[in-house]
Design brief:
11 strands, Porin, mainly beta, elongated
Length: 226
């Protein structure tokens, strides 16, 4: 998917567009959906996988499904409501020569956001360039289960609730009068997270984290205006 994003958007740039009929009113709503993935940093809506035997150690993210509804608030301003979510389950085999048993990992997450998108380019530009600001919130739950040599399972579970703000950019290319392709990414985020983890035979652990990040998490969407 990462390799397809740039070619798809380049193809859209080179595709002739069909404009609105002269005198037609601009669309007041826009609905779209697609996929996003993390390349750099930790976006607020990243759905993260646990690393090794410790659920609180995060080292990878999975693609998430996104959808958003936009309402025009001005000639160049849109109010944006967004949803994102995803899940993954995998079995990790032990390294060669290791005495550890195979490990099952699962992760789920869901997020919501509300924000504003402001178009900066003129109306006749072939590509709309926008800046986007949003307030986001959501949760992630990750768990890791390992068969115990003594029998039964050892399970560690990580739960996090997050809230924060993000700022980013979006590029939109019209394909027809109402259909468009968008690629967008947050660039900076600031977030607060409450974190808890439990493990078989161990005391529960609770904490919190406050941070700011530079991120790159491309989102590819197909949108329809109405």
């Amino acid at each position: 998917m990462r390799r397809l994003a740039a070619p798809l958007f380049l193809a859209a740039l080179l595709t002739p567009t069909l404009s609105l009929a002269e005198g037609a009113s601009p669309a007041e709503w826009s609905l779209g959906g697609g996929l996003s993935w993390t390349l750099v940093g930790n976006p607020i809506s990243a759905i993260l996988l646990p690393s090794g035997a410790y659920v609180t150690s995060i080292d990878a993210s999975i693609p998430s499904v996104n959808a958003s509804l936009e309402r025009r608030a001005g000639e160049r301003t849109w109010i944006v409501l967004g949803l994102a979510g995803g899940g993954d389950r995998r079995e990790m085999d032990p390294p060669s020569g290791s005495t550890y048993s195979p490990t099952d990992q699962t992760v789920t997450g869901a997020f919501a956001s509300v924000g504003v998108r402001r178009v900066l380019t003129p109306g006749d530009a072939p590509v709309d360039f926008s800046i986007v600001g949003a307030i986001e919130g959501g949760f992630v739950r990750a768990s890791e289960t390992t068969p115990s040599p003594a029998g039964g399972d050892l399970e560690e579970t990580y739960r996090s609730r997050l809230v924060g703000v993000s700022g980013g950019i979006a590029l939109d290319r019209t394909l027809t009068g109402s259909l468009s392709l968008r690629i967008a990414t947050p660039l900076v985020t600031a977030s607060y997270a409450s974190v808890s983890s439990t493990a078989t035979g161990q005391a529960d652990r609770n904490g919190s984290a406050l941070g700011a990040h530079v991120v790159l998490a491309p989102r590819l969407e197909l949108r329809i205006a109405f």
